[in-house]
Specification:
By secondary structure, this protein is α/β, with parallel strands linked by helices. Helices cover 42% and strands 22% of the residues. The chain binds ligand C2E and magnesium ion (MG) (2 copies).
């Protein structure tokens, strides 16, 4: 504002306050200061000021700009300027401090004179030490002994407050580790972007990014290292995103890119791919070099969801599906992506802890020959003794473990402990039993899985022929080439392989004949109601015939009644497992169960 300034006379003893940028008269309030924009100085300013100084009767003079807006106030004792910045005006011209003091303005109290380079906190300290009176009367700012302006204490307070508010705002909206917007600011921008998209008809995309195995990095190298890795991840992501995008850290190792004005899904996919690839470059942190990969999931507004918060959940779900397919990759949300609800998230945290704290335990369910009732093996089934929730069933936590990748350490724990329970040295009575262990697809796909199995067997000198791994049909159909190689490696160890829940997946019969499989486990849904459902009877008959033609062994799961058992026998199914024979039980009870069956009584 280049408005011309003028001093106007004020009737004696009149009090003023300034509100909303305008001078107001008030009988009791002496001055209420507000910050106003800085203004230039008019030529006649000094002359008027001179007149005021000579006229002892005039109490005060407001200084107003050409729009009659007050920018300063001169009174008998104090000169007060209103600034948006205290250092920016020159009402007195570039006079020297000494000349000003000669002006008799400051006869009663020695003013505080501070150098322009002093920051507001320093000035505040100076004022506090001087006894605070200058909070009301103001202090002089100078540059190399020359007057620059008078700052009022209350202006200073405002500046400090604004400064602190800015700091507070920063802390509330930005992540201190990476400097990226945090969840609060991100949520705000997402909501705003969605509103804007509603108006413009454009789309908004979210890329949900999670660092793979970050916990392992933190545990192995320490938290400082983990922090440095997160900063590097943040840096790489930020560099790839456009200026208009918001890159935020949601917490932990989770990041998100908010893309506004999305023209096509290809742009979203391309950015996601670039982010995944950019992370594959080795990271150099605190003297170490390592490769840190990320998993990315995307969701698009309003196509995938027309509300911001579920949209984030969907991008998160897509990210988990990227993790489930082996990490270091990108997945889009689609209607068949499993949604990862907050309850699962809680469960995931608890489960992570459970694996470390040994809260997991194993139960074993006998498998018997239907004709003789002879025990022929046990299936290992994991249980979780949750400190508050009690015994959590695998149906609840295995999907969470699979989606979060925790199934890998969990499955490793199960295999190692199952073998430990049944190794000859520990339990001679159970040493001849065949032990089945369920293996999840992600666990199976670990590059070192066959080697891990070999090492587990070697650790406790477990006969590989007695171990059977239960795999799912969907795993076998996923990546036939890769799966075949792993199956062959495991087979070479001497370990047996079974297809679990057979009949529920979509096995291709031609592949089935080529896989080195030993056994099919008929899913319990076909056993259920087999007496009353002719279609179930036909399916079981077909599976038994198929197994026979491929020379595969067969076990029926979930046999609960004598009728079911009899019918299965009629259908030529030789082995079974189910509550009719025994429920899954801890290893200690299994010995008693076997002993009770063997006793003549
Ligand atoms: P699954 O491998 O098909 O295991 C059989 C499930 O059927 C077990 O449930 C068992 O308790 C239950 N069951 C056995 N007989 C009967 C019966 O007569 N009637 C009924 N209604 N149910 C019967 P559980 O222990 O709850 O395990 C559920 C699933 O969780 C397992 O299905 C398996 O897919 C998974 N799971 C369990 N332990 C592990 C593990 O260590 N690793 C992996 N990856 N998955 C596991
Ligand atoms: Mg099983
Ligand atoms: Mg099963």
């Amino acid at each position: 504002m280049n408005a011309k300034l003028s001093l106007i006379e004020l009737p004696q003893q009149q009090f003023l306050f300034i509100d909303d940028g305008r001078l107001q008269e008030a009988p009791t309030v002496r001055l209420l200061l507000r910050l106003l924009p800085p203004a230039g100085v008019g030529d006649d300013c000094n002359a008027l000021l001179g007149r005021f100084l000579e006229d002892a009767e005039t109490y005060a003079l407001p200084v107003v700009d050409a729009d009659q807006r007050p920018v300063a106030l001169v009174d008998r004792k104090n000169f007060v300027e209103f600034f948006s910045k205290p250092y920016c005006r020159e009402l007195f011209g570039r006079r020297r401090i000494r000349d000003l003091l000669d002006h008799h303005l400051f006869q009663d109290e020695a003013p505080i004179i501070v150098e322009e380079s002093c920051n507001v906190e320093d000035v505040a300290n100076i004022i506090i030490h001087a006894g605070m009176q200058h909070m009301a009367t103001g202090f002089i700012i100078c540059r190399a002994g020359h007057y620059l302006g008078i700052a009022n204490g209350r202006d200073l307070l405002n500046v400090i407050t604004q400064h602190n508010q800015a700091k507070l705002y920063y802390h509330a909206h930005y992540d201190s580790l990476t400097g990226l917007p945090n969840r609060v600011l991100f949520s705000d921008r997402l909501a705003q972007a969605c509103r804007e998209a509603d108006r413009s008809g454009r789309r908004v995309a979210l890329l949900f990014i999670d660092v793979d195995r970050f916990k392992g990095i933190n545990d192995s190298f320490g938290h400082n290292f983990g922090d440095a890795v997160l900063r590097e991840v943040a840096h790489r992501i930020k560099q790839l995103s456009r200026c208009a995008d918001t890159t935020a850290r949601l917490g932990g190792d989770e990041f998100v890119i908010l893309m506004e004005d999305v023209e096509s899904e290809e742009h979203v996919d391309a950015l996601a791919q670039r982010v995944v690839i950019a992370m594959q470059e080795p990271v150099e942190v605190l003297g170490h070099t390592l490769v840190v990969t990320i998993s990315v999931g995307s969701a698009i507004y309003p196509t995938d969801d027309a509300a911001p918060s579920p949209l984030l959940a969907k991008a998160d779900a897509a990210m988990y599906s990227a993790k489930a397919t082996g990490r270091n990759t990108f997945r889009k949300y689609s209607s068949d992506t499993a949604i990862y609800d907050p309850e699962s998230k809680l469960l995931e945290n608890d489960l992570r802890r459970a694996i470390e704290n040994d809260e997991l335990t194993l139960h074993f369910q006998p498998q018997v020959e239907l004709a003789s009732g002879r025990l022929c093996g046990v299936e290992t089934l994991v249980r979780w003794r949750h400190p508050e929730r009690g015994l959590v069933s695998p149906g609840q936590f295995i999907p969470v473990a699979e989606q979060s990748g925790l199934i890998v350490p969990l499955g490793a724990w199960v295999l190692r402990n199952a073998l430990g329970h049944f190794c000859t040295c520990q339990n001679p009575g159970l040493s001849a039993l065949r032990v089945s262990v369920n293996i999840s697809p992600l666990q199976f796909q670990q590059p070192d899985f066959p080697e891990f199995v070999r090492a587990c067997l070697a650790e406790v000198c477990f006969d590989p022929q007695r171990l059977e791994l239960e795999l799912t049909e969907t795993l076998l159909m996923r990546d036939v080439r890769g799966v075949m190689d792993t199956l062959m490696e495991i087979r070479r160890l001497g370990v047996k392989l079974a297809i679990d829940d057979f009949g529920t997946g979509f096995s291709s019969l031609s592949y089935l004949s080529r896989f080195p499989i030993d056994r099919l486990k008929i899913d319990q849904s076909f056993v259920r109601d087999i007496r009353h459902s002719s279609s179930n009877t036909s399916i079981v008959r077909a599976i038994v015939a198929l197994a026979r033609s491929l020379s595969l062994d067969i076990v029926a799961e979930g046999i609960e009644t004598v009728e079911e058992k009899s019918l299965l026998e009629e259908l030529d199914c030789s082995k079974g497992q189910g509550f009719l024979f025994a429920r899954p039980m801890p290893a200690e009870q299994l010995g008693d169960w076997i002993a009770a069956r063997q006793s003549p009584a």
